[in-house]
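We emphasize that the prediction below concerns an isolated chain of 366 residues; any contacts that depend on oligomerization or on bound cofactors are therefore not represented. The input was used exactly as deposited, without trimming of termini.
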Amino acid sequence: MAGIRFQSIRKVFGKTVAADSVSLEIRDGEFMVLLGPSGCGKTTLLRCLAGLEHVDGGRVFIGDRDVTDRAPRDRRIAMVFQSYAVFPHLTVFDNIAFGLKMQGRPRDEIKRRVEESARLLELTDFLKRYPAQLSGGQRQRVAVARAIVMQAAVLLMDEPLSNLDALLRLQMRAELKRLHQEIKATTIYVTHDQVEALSLGDRIAVMQSGRIVQCDVPMNIYDYPANKFVGGFIGTPPMNFLPGVVHANGDGPTVVVGESHLAPAPAFAHALSAKNGEPILLGIRPENLTLAPNQQANTIRARVRVVEPLGSHKLLTMQVGTEISKVSVAPDQRVAPNEDVWLHFDPEKIRWMDAATGEAISATVE
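Result of the prediction step, given as a C-alpha cell string:
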C-alpha cells in the first residue's frame, strides 16, 4: 500500500511560512494534484514528502511507514522535475536505466524494465538516440520513463510540462493520464496550471499561502468553489464576481445588483435571508450567463466592450455597472462592441459568497 498522509506539516523559511499545518490524505493509487499560484507552498510540500526538505513540525507517512526522518533513498519514491534533467552524454536507454544501474540491478532485468518503460512512453524507437536528437516533449518523456522504471511506490511530479509549448502540453497531459491508468502508482502532481489540474487529477488540493483551502474532485471545485480565491483561480476565464446587497421580505430574499433584483435558487433562500441588509458577492461562470432579448426576471443590463471570436465560442468582455465580467456565447451569436444587452443569470448556477471573508455560503440541504 502506498497511501500518503501529511499530518500537520509545517515548514518555515526565515520569516516565510511555506507550509502552515497542512494535513492531507492521499489514497493508494490516486492521482492528486497540488494546485496554486507561485509561492503557495505546493512544491515545498512535495519536497517534504520526498525528503528534500526537513519539516519543522508534523509527520509524513507513506503507507503505514513514518518517513519523516528517513533519507530520500529510503522512501521508495521517484520524482520528475520541471527541468528535463536528462544526461546529455547518455543515450535514451542509459538515461532511463541510470537509477537501476546505481542499484546494481542485473543486466537482463535492466534491459527488460527499460524496454517496458520505453513502451509505455512510446520511446522504443529512440533508445539509441541522445537527448540532443530529441524534441522537448520526447526529452520530457525520457525523464518520466526514468522515474517509472524504478517501480517506486510513489511518483512525484513538479510542474513537468511547464517548459513545453501549448500543443506538446496538450499531448503530454493525455499521455500522463494514460500512463497513470496503466501503472496505477500513487501520484502527486504539482502545477499552477488549472487546466492541467482539472484534466489530470482524481482530486485537486488548492493551496494558498501555505494552506489547503479546498480539496475535492475537479468538477466540485469548479462548480462549487469554497471561496472567492478558488473561484477566481480555477477556470479560463475565471468566475465573475459582482457585489450586491441582500433584501429579505415575506416573499423570500432577493439580491440587489446595480438596479436589478435577482432571485436566488430556493436552496439558498434560508442562508441569504439571515443576511438581510448585508453586502454579498455573486459568483458565476462565464458560460452560465446568456444574452436575453429584453429585460426579464434575473437579468442585468450590461454593455459589450470587447468581442473575441475563439472558434468554438465568442468571449465577451462586458461592463456591468462598474464591474468587468466575461461572458461565453455561441460563435454565431450576433453582438458588437458598445452594444447594450441584457444578461440573464441562471439562479442554479450562481454561487453566493460573504463579501467580507470571500467564503462561500452553503445551500440548505432539505
